[in-house]
Write a structure and sequence with these properties.
Layout: E1 12-14, H1 26-30, E2 38-40, E3 62-64, E4 87-89, E5 96-97, E6 111-113, E7 118-119, E8 135-137, E9 144-145, E10 159-161, E11 166-169, E12 183-185, E13 190-191, H2 195-201
Parallel strand pairs: 1-2, 2-3, 3-4, 4-6, 5-7, 6-8, 8-10, 9-11, 10-12, 11-13
Length: 207
C-alpha cells in the first residue's frame, strides 16, 4: 500500500475483498491520509490491528473492517477515539469479552455493526442512549440478560437485529416509543413471551 503516500487528498478508499495479507503497514499508511472520509477494508485478509498507534483520522466518518477475523481478541483502543464516526462495522471478527465501555464515547454513530463476534456481556445500558443510532446489529454473539426498558431511548432506530444470542425475559413495552423502527429481529433467543404481547407494545406507533 505504499502507493497511498502519493494520494494525500484521497477521501474514499474501498479495498474490500482485496488480499492485503502482506500489507502489515496498512494502518500506518492509511493514517497518513488527512482527508480520508471513508475506509472500507472488509474481507481483506488482514490478520492484526495495531493497538498502540496514535491515529490522525480526524475526518473519518465510515470505518469498515468487517470479515477479517483478526488475531486481536479485543477491539483496539484507538478506534474508540474516532468520535466523528457515523458508521462502524466490526462484524465477523470474533472479538471477545463484554461490549467495550469505551464505545460509549462514540455518540455520533448512526450505524453500528458488531455482529458475528463473541461478546458475552449483557447489552450495556449506555448503548440505549445513542439517540442518533439508526442501524444496530448485534446478531450472533453470546449476549445475555434482558432487553432493558431503556430501549425507549433509541428513538432514531430504523433497524435492530438481536438474532442468535442468549437474551431472556420479555421485550419491554417501552419498545413502543421507538416509532421509526422498520425492522426488528429477535429470533433464536430465550425470550419468554407471546408474539402478540410484543406486537401490542408497538400499537402506539400505528398512527
Amino acid at each position: 500500500l505504499q502507493w497511498l503516500l502519493g494520494l494525500p487528498l484521497l477521501q474514499h478508499l474501498d479495498m474490500s475483498g482485496v488480499n492485503l495479507s502482506k500489507a502489515f503497514d496498512w494502518l500506518q499508511l492509511t493514517n497518513t491520509l488527512p482527508s480520508l472520509f471513508d475506509l472500507h477494508l472488509s474481507y481483506s485478509q488482514l490478520s492484526f490491528i495495531p493497538s498502540t498507534l496514535t491515529v490522525n483520522f480526524s475526518s473519518l466518518l465510515t470505518l469498515d473492517l468487517s470479515m477479517n477475523q483478526f488475531e486481536n481478541t479485543l477491539i483496539p483502543s484507538w478506534i474508540f477515539g474516532l468520535r466523528n464516526l457515523v458508521s462502524l462495522d466490526l462484524s465477523e471478527n470474533y472479538f471477545q469479552g463484554p461490549i467495550p465501555i469505551d464505545l460509549q464515547n462514540m455518540t455520533s454513530l448512526r450505524h453500528l455493526d458488531l455482529s458475528l463476534n463473541n461478546f458475552n456481556s449483557s447489552i450495556p445500558n449506555w448503548l440505549y442512549s445513542f439517540s442518533h443510532l439508526e442501524f444496530l446489529n448485534l446478531r450472533k454473539n453470546l449476549l445475555q440478560g434482558i432487553i432493558s426498558t431503556s430501549i425507549r431511548n433509541l428513538t432514531s432506530a430504523i433497524s435492530i437485529d438481536l438474532t442468535s444470542n442468549q437474551l431472556n425475559g420479555k421485550v419491554p413495552r417501552s419498545l413502543g416509543n421507538v416509532c421509526n423502527l422498520r425492522e426488528l429481529r429477535l429470533s433464536d433467543n430465550k425470550l419468554s413471551q407471546e408474539v402478540s404481547a410484543i406486537l401490542e407494545s408497538l400499537l402506539r406507533c400505528v398512527s
